[in-house]
Amino acid sequence: MTYSRCGIVALTERKSRFLEIQTDRTSYLLGDVVLVTINAKMDHMPKYESVVLLVSCVGTISRTFTDAKMPPNPKVLSKTYFEMKNEFMNQNFPLSYSFSLPGTSPFTGEESSFVLTNPIISQIFKISAMHSYRIDLFVKQDGKIYLAEQKDIVVRRTFQQIQPSPSWNFEIDNFKIKIVLDKPSYYPQENGFLLFEVNSKVQRSTSIPKVSFNQTLIFNFDDQQIVVKKQIIPQMSLPAFQPYYYGKRPLLFKIPEGLPPSHSTPLFKVEYSFDISTDLFYEGGAQNQLKLVLKSTILAPPNLCGACVFMPLITNDFNPPSESILRPFWQEDKSTDTCGICGASFGLITRRHHCRRCGKVFCGSCCVDSVLMKDLGFDRPERVCKSCFKLIQSN
């Protein structure tokens, strides 16, 4: 039988298995230095022409479609991300060799898989992706190449540099909203929050904002790209933003355990995002729908990583902000039939008007003055009642 990797084809006969591979650690981070030692298993070794050490990382994605009427038809696509070869003519064992793991290569393991099952017609569609790091040891003897030993090594994801927290700004028709994640990346089982900063000058409430945390898997085959999007956290929601709301409102969440870290390779990609949607309503029935995607990063748990100089500090301290309302709520129209100052009854002639400072309802005569109130988030003069006007003037 033969074994092939990175262009080397070798025989796999038992008579060549006289060497063993040892590494200084069981797992590594990308960029770490790996120390390899080749030892002889017996005192009197056969004489080889040379010993070849191959270090490689190979990525594989597979796509399998199984039907009750047909056998499975797997399609496998592989890619070599890096390879290093070193040939030893000197055979005084033990032999030592060291190399650095590339900082941009993928990490080890089955990163993710997707299975779609149709029980009615007995069909199964499965996609999986995996990357492996392997040390192969070959010997050359009598003009032939034999496989002497193999050893897989575990490579964990390197900690990412902290980037500014993802945010999103939007303004349309007197409605401003800014949504910010408290941090750009999270570990599994870590708490976090989205902060909604809203400055509304619209006289109707929004719909209930809905938020979902999703995982996107992208498999790149030669003939097609398969994209699978899965909801990781059940849909979350916030109370609707009232008319003329001005303030900050947090939405708390917790990242589930067992998620594969975010990463990207030519064969396979894992991405995470918060998908947010809400509707804006206007007088007369007009409506705008807001939909946005905030991308986030999931990191590998530090307890899965090898030795490294820097280990991030993960604490249980989580102090999310509470809601801060910077402008009084608007009084509902139907809550009163008379002006809050003069007592005039509202009707076809006497219309309701809201004071932009206190939020209460008055008639047009008692709510006629306009004042610029930057402390309440207004960038132009707004209507205020007589009481608030006198208070502002006195201050």
UniProtKB/TrEMBL annotation:
It comes from the Eukaryota. SUPFAM superfamilies: FYVE/PHD zinc finger (SSF57903). It is an enzyme of class 2 (transferase). Residues 333-393 form the FYVE-type domain. Gene3D superfamilies: 2.60.40.640, Zinc/RING finger domain, C3HC4 (zinc finger). One of its GO terms (molecular function) is zinc ion binding. Its EC number is 2.7.1.150. This is A kinase anchor protein, putative. It comes from Entamoeba dispar (strain ATCC PRA-260 / SAW760).
